[in-house]
Amino acid sequence: MEQNLKSGFVTMIGRPNVGKSTLMNRLIGQKIAITSNKPQTTRNRIRTVYTDPARGQIVFVDTPGIHQAKNRLGEYMVQTAVESIKDVDAILWLIEPGNFIGAGERQIIKQLEQASVPVLLVMNKADTVKKENILECIDTYRRVFAFDEIIPVSALTGYNLDDLVDTVYQYLPYGPLFFDEEDRKSTRLNSSHMA
Q1: What does the pLDDT look like over 65-102, one tens digit per residue?
Q2: CATH code of the domain occupying 2-182
Q3: Domain ranges in the chain?
Q4: Which residues on neighbouring strands pair with residue 90, listed in sequence order?
Q5: Which is deepest, 47, 91, 164, 189, by most CB within 10 Å?
């Protein structure tokens, strides 16, 4: 059974307040990342473990929002987010539905162009717009980057999250679990505890 399992690291990036922490909390099933209406609440990388005994483990890495830094703390937070796209097996770029690709999004695209792993565009808050708006947003983003997948979801309601998890597993390598039985419960892991 062990040889059929997949395990990997998946980072979540995006602009501030697109719902990265809310999505992680929903996937893991408990409140492990800070959620707030105030942007840039997540100051460090937060890692959480999602285990499916039949499929394997996903180690999600939640990052500070990528934004235009105005001070040293902001610079540190952006650098932390940018560094998180290295040494992972897949990247989830969270966006909100919309047709405008601004400077912040273009900054993220520039970083993603350096990535050598699959990039999945995750359109959060899909429950807040009409289906035609979702399709327009997908078309807009498809023109600026060659995403491996584009998946509309709602972290708040849970819409389409099973599909998101199924898709993530498709891109992970086969291998043993990173965490043993004692660690399999959803856990907040400080990045300093991991190599």
Answers
A1: 554 545 554 454 445 555 656 778 999 999 999 989 98
A2: 3.40.50.300
A3: 2-182
A4: 10
A5: 91
